[in-house]
Write a structure and sequence with these properties.
The chain is of the alpha/beta class and 381 residues long. The chain folds into two domains: 209 residues, Glycogen Phosphorylase B (Rossmann fold, 3-Layer(aba) Sandwich), CATH 3.40.50; 146 residues, Rossmann fold. It is 40% helix and 16% strand. The protein is built from 15 helices and 13 strands. The strands form two sheets. Strands 3-2-1-4-5-6-7 form a seven-stranded parallel beta sheet, sandwiched between helices. Helix 1 packs across helix 2 and helix 3 crosses helix 7. The longest helix has 18 residues. It is globular. The two termini are 15 Å apart.
Length: 381
């Protein structure tokens, strides 16, 4: 399979999960000779780090391509702020689409790939080229869930006025998504009834590290004799955690990546993303090197734990349509256990961690989704 296609890749900037899985597809497309224009507000360094060796084959343009949900922390969403941001994004959508399409035309784009911004479909329509979506959920489904539930987990309940706004933006996304040319569905997907096109099931997409545990921990200055727990919350705020007052067992260390925090506790290692990159360490290397991950369940971190056979402790996700499907995925694919956020805050999780590590068994899971997706994207429509 060799292609010289010029493809625009629209990737949601709602956290790093969409970019983390999509970059595997982009890598496969690049291996097969495609030229890519990456359209996103995910920072360029993320792609430089992952596919920098293909730099002559791809370009990057910074645009906010969707809103998703406005998050006030790694665990909570602000629905009122979400509505404000949705209006900021969609009230001048024609101007946004025109600006993006000028760049796409200049690049000579022939197809659009997206995960999962609706503006990508509008851009493809305007240029009269195919659009291929890939995801385990779409935003109309997420907003529909907010419409039908009392969503007070973030202490910002959806009142009638906000609910009406979510109805509007749900219907807007449904209408736009209905013009997609093809949809690639990841395992444990939500309702994709908005998409009236061909729908193709693909396997899991994850990042598998080839780095050795000792090498990764040595680069991060962590004692190789220690057991290590990774706190992974997508770079969002970690509220009310006093790391310096943690009294950790001597044989455990905690690793946190994606934050610029100062702590005195020598058993807590905190790195910015740029810090680990400077040490030639990828986030996937970290997931593989640690003994267990503590997180809120999201598609990307589950996939990476599957690929690197790392067990997971996870907190309540709150009202989010994707959450029950993710729990089912965890049951089927990964040693895991639910914990409370109070346990996370106080590092009172290590007994559960020990038990889970000691009894971990990993089912065989197909993780060839990136290769399958690339074949579908390159194929003639």
């Amino acid at each position: 399979m060799v292609s010289k296609s010029k493809i625009a890749a629209f990737i949601s900037g709602h956290g790093f999960g969409h970019a983390s899985r999509s970059v595997n597809i982009l890598r496969e497309l690049l291996k097969n000779g495609c030229q890519l224009l990456i359209v996103t507000n995910v920072p360029k360094w993320f792609f430089d780090d992952k596919i920098g060796h293909f730099s002559k084959q791809w370009s990057y343009t910074n645009h906010q391509v969707d809103v998703g949900l406005s998050q006030v922390s790694g665990l909570a969403s602000d629905y009122h702020q979400t509505i404000k941001e949705l209006h900021n994004h969609w009230d001048n959508i024609d101007e946004r689409v025109n600006k993006i399409c000028e760049e796409l035309k200049k690049f000579g784009v022939e197809k659009v790939y997206f995960d999962i911004p609706a503006i990508a479909v509008l851009s493809a329509q305007k240029l009269q080229i195919p659009s291929i979506g890939m995801s385990n959920f779409s935003w109309d489904w997420i907003y529909d869930d907010l419409v039908h539930n009392e969503c007070d987990y973030s202490q910002n309940s959806v009142n009638h006025e906000i609910r009406d706004e979510f109805i509007h933006f749900r219907d807007l996304h449904k209408e736009i998504y209905s013009h997609t040319s093809k949809l690639l569905k990841l395992p444990y997907s939500g309702d994709f009834s908005a998409f009236k096109c061909e729908q193709v099931d693909i396997p899991w997409i994850g990042n598998k590290s080839i780095a050795g545990r000792d090498n990764t921990l040595s680069k991060l200055g962590i004692d190789l004799q220690k057991k290590v727990v990774l706190y992974s919350f997508g770079g969002h705020d970690l509220p009310n955690i006093d790391f310096d007052h943690w009294n950790l067992p001597a044989d455990w260390d905690v690793l946190i990546v994606g934050y610029d925090l100062k702590v005195e506790n020598r058993q807590v290692h905190i790195y910015k993303n740029s810090d680990i990159t400077a040490k030639n360490v990828d986030y996937t290397d970290v997931v593989k090197a640690v003994d267990i991950v503590v997180t809120k369940p999201g598609y990307g971190i589950i996939a990476d734990c599957i690929c690197n056979q790392t067990p997971m402790l996870h907190v309540e996700r709150g009202q989010f349509a994707e959450y029950p499907l993710l729990l089912k995925a965890l049951d089927d694919t990964l040693p895991h256990q639910k914990i409370t956020f109070n346990e996370v805050k106080n590092a009172n999780i290590l007994k559960q961690a020990e038990a889970l590590i000691n009894n971990a068994a990993f089912p065989k899971v197909n993780t060839t989704g990136a290769e399958k997706a690339a074949i579908q994207i390159i194929a003639k429509s």
